[in-house]
Structure formats: structure tokens, C-alpha cells
Amino acid sequence: xxxxxxxxxxxxxxxxxxxxxxxxxxxxxxxxxxxxxxxxxxxxxxxxxxxxxxxxxxxxxxxxxxxxxxxxxxxxxxxxxxxxxxxxxxxxxxxxxxxxxxxxxxxxxxxxxxxxxxxxxxxxxxxxxxxxxxxxxxxxxxxxxxxxxxxxxxxxxxxxxxxxxxxxxxxxxxxxxxxxxxxxxxxxxxxxxxxxxxxxxxxxxxxx
Length: 208
Fold this sequence. Notes:
8-stranded antiparallel sheet
């Protein structure tokens, strides 16, 4: 890599700073991958509040539910989100990216790029602030009480009296979403590739 060799944009001093910026986040992402693969995360935890991007050529899910809710930061601040639950999902050409605050650096995780080997997740819960794509739902209920939702997995339901929707099956082509939290009972990342991206122009690689 040019930066590692001490080009004009990144001398040895800046490279050391870069290592400080990325050492902890890199270890955290690696732990996240291992933890999710072993079902180590509960449905509720304190979020950082920093958003990250997720994209996939296609999401194919059995059992889908969605409802409004909040996630909490360590200081107790609540962040409103749309919570999407998928009981059993497959993601083709999955990408997840997050930018490191205050640095021209991002972390990307890619998986499920090989034909016939998508990334797979069970009991997936995503706290979403924005989502787009071409979606097709099968046997969908819209306006269902969020406390009665069952299709998206055992934890994919909200509070009594809150708006919710669920479907037996969902397909989303060209998935693009910005999220603040993700949990899963299991997450199989076939063809996993984790990469630290450094950009001299201050715009490191992201999923979109």
C-alpha cells in the first residue's frame, strides 16, 4: 500500500496515528464478526450512536416484521429507529461499512459474493434509520399491533398499541440501508473479507 510506504500524503507520523485510530475499531469489528457467528449478542445493548451502511444485491428472507422503536446509548440517550426483523435471511453480495470519526479511514466487511454462497443470518434484528430497494412481500399484514408480531423471530416485536407490519416472506433487490444496530442469533459470512480503507482525499470506500 502506498500509504504504508510513507508517501507524501501519509508520512510515518501520520501512519502511527492511523494505527491508533484503527487498532481498537478493527479489533471491535473482528470481535463482532466472531460474536455474531456464535450467537453471542442479545437483542438489547447500548449502541454507540454512530451509523453504518449495509448493502446487498438481494435480501431473501423468511419471516419479516417491522415496527417503530428506540435504541439507547450508554448515556441513556434514545435514538428512534425502524426495527426490522428477519427470522431466516440470505444476503447476496453483502457489504457493511463504517467510517472512523476524525480520520480518512473506513472499515468494510464483505461476504456472500460467490455464486450460490450468500451470507446467512437467523433471528436478525436491524435498527434502521433509512432503507431503500425494490421490495416484494408475501402474505403481508400492515397496521398490526407491534406486540403481536411473530414472523420476524422471537424478539422481533414491539410495544402494545404501536404500529407494526409482518410478512411470511420478503425479497429486497438493491438493498441499501443506514443503521445504528444489528444483532443476530447466527451470522454466516461466506467469503468474508474485512478491509481497512485509507483515502488521501478524505473519502474512504463505503458500501454506497
